């Protein structure tokens, strides 16, 4: 699956299928600090992401560049 | 994952509330939390003339949207700070939102009005950019709110912002700042009433609200605030929150209920006298206010020539 991250902007590829929670764990991301979005819609934490999925992981913590 | 209210498919889980919500009920939940904050802290009446400080980011656009949805009369205030392309882009988000929702946006450009921008101000005053930026914004918020006859100034500070400030003030035992930390700052001579209706909502909830209702907001972060202490405090608190959901809310809410009154009482006993700034009239503990001193340094002008315009008519 293709994963777009921001701040800083970068793209990652991971092999699916995989749950959102497992993907966040694999990327060492704190679930309190991000949203997972696909086609402009929130993806719930228990959803399964297909191998061909394209998603955005959006950092939600404001206050300055990282 | 099912919505707590309708048992339909949920989009988001809010662990600190032990609840999941579908899109519709999440929007209602967020709006109700704002309504509760306004009511609990007696922020303003339904008829109030409201000015919302708008940056183009998620929190300020979301609170402007929510107030509009709840039926309040709220104008926006955008301040052009001259922070490279970041300011130009954030202005576009603020303007586009105002146009899309038929709302009135007041704009003040720091450079056009006072002759300097935030990077110049920070360099001239030998201050970190966030200090010059915050000082300039507060001065302009106060002026526009008072000149424009607004009853209250609303800012988009959320639960995470307040928790991070409280954490920093506590770590350094800044008792004078702890005395002032409250979601309502009462109006007094020279200062408008200021309120923070997002005090019950965290950053993830605000970003999710924007995605669900379709608010297009500025995703880039301020380049001048890179790696600041406030962000490190937020990271530390979110690490705790991930293991113990609800900790941030308890930290802020119990402070407000149990500790804030003690600090406020102590500060009142050792209150600092304020007097009007000799140049612009804003209340200050010294002869000239910090913003007029900053403007004089940044523009290289004597204080008597520092612009002192009325910002709204």
The poorly predicted ranges of chain A are none
- Uncertain segments of chain B: none
Terminus-to-terminus distance of chain B? 52 Å
Described by the principal axes of the CA atoms, the overall outline of chain B is globular
- CATH first level of chain A: which class? Alpha Beta
Task: Determine Rg of chain B (CA atoms, Å).
Answer: 20 Å
- Largest interface, per-chain counts? A-B, 23 and 42 residues
Query: What's the total count of β strands of chain B?
Result: 10
* Helix/strand order of chain B: EEHEHEHEHHHEHHEEHHHEEH
As a percent range, the share of helical residues of chain B equals 40-55%
Largest sheet of chain A: 5 strands, mixed
CATH architecture of chain A: Roll
- Classify the oligomer: heterodimer
- What do the pLDDT scores of chain B average to? 93
Structural class category of chain B: alpha/beta
Task: Work out the count of structural domains of chain B.
Answer: 1
The CATH architecture of chain B comes to 3-Layer(aba) Sandwich
Percentage of residues in DSSP E strands of chain B: 5-15%
* Biggest sheet descriptor of chain B: 6 strands, mixed
**Overall outline of chain A:** globular
Strand content of chain A: 35-45%
Give a written overview of the molecule:
The complex is a heterodimer of chains A (66) and B (313). Chain A has one helix and seven strands; from the N terminus they run E-E-E-H-E-E-E-E. Chain A has one helix at 20-26; strands spanning 2-5, 10-13, 18-19, 34-38, 41-42, 48-49, 54-59. In chain A, strands 2-1-7-4-5 form a five-stranded mixed beta sheet, with no helix packed on it. Chain A has a two-stranded antiparallel ribbon with strand order 3-6. Chain A is globular, with a radius of gyration of 11 Å. Chain B has 313 residues and is α/β, with parallel strands linked by helices. Chain B has one domain: Rossmann fold (3-Layer(aba) Sandwich), CATH 3.40.50.620. Chain B contains twelve helices and ten strands. Chain B has a six-stranded mixed beta sheet with strand order 5-4-3-6-8-7, with helices on both faces. A two-stranded antiparallel sheet of chain B has the order 1-2. Chain B has a two-stranded antiparallel ribbon with strand order 9-10. The chains are: A mainly beta (66), B alpha/beta (313). At the A-B interface, strand 4 and strand 5 of A face helix 7, helix 9 and helix 10 of B.
């Amino acid at each position: 699956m293709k994963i777009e991250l921001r701040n800083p902007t970068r793209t990652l590829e991971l092999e699916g299928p995989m749950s959102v929670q497992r993907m966040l764990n694999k990327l060492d991301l704190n679930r309190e600090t991000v949203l997972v979005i696909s086609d402009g819609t929130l993806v719930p934490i228990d959803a399964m992401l297909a191998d061909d999925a394209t998603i955005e992981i959006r950092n939600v913590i404001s206050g300055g560049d990282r | 994952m099912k919505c707590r209210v309708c048992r339909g498919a949920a989009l988001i889980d809010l662990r600190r509330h032990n609840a999941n919500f579908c899109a519709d009920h999440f929007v209602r939940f967020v709006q109700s939390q704002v309504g509760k904050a306004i009511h609990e802290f007696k922020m303003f009446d339904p008829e109030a003339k409201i000015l919302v400080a708008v940056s183009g980011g998620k929190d300020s656009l979301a609170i402007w949207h929510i107030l509009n949805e709840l039926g309040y009369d709220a104008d926006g205030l955008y301040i052009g700070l001259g922070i490279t392309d970041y300011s130009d882009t954030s202005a576009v988000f603020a303007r586009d939102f105002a146009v899309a929702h038929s709302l009135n946006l007041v704009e003040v450009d720091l450079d056009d009005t006072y002759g300097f921008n935030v990077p110049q101000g920070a360099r001239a005053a030998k201050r970190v950019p966030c200090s010059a930026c915050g000082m300039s914004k507060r001065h302009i918020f106060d002026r526009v709110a008072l000149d424009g006859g607004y009853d209250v100034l609303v800012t988009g500070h959320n639960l995470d912002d307040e928790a991070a400030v409280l954490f920093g003030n506590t770590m350094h035992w800044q008792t004078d700042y702890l005395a002032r930390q409250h979601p309502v700052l009462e109006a007094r001579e020279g200062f408008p009433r200021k309120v923070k209706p997002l005090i019950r909502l965290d950053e993830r909830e605000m970003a999710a609200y924007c995605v669900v209702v379709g608010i297009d907001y500025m995703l880039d972060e301020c380049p001048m605030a890179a790696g600041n202490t406030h962000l490190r405090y937020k990271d530390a608190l979110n690490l705790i929150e991930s293991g113990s959901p609800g900790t941030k809310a308890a930290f802020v809410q119990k402070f407000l209920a149990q500790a804030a009154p003690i600090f406020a009482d102590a500060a009142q006993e050792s209150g600092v006298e304020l007097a009007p700034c000799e140049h612009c009239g804003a209340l200050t503990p010294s002869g000239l206010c910090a913003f007029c001193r900053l403007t004089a340094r940044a523009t290289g002008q004597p204080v008597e020539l520092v612009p002192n315009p009325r910002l709204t008519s």
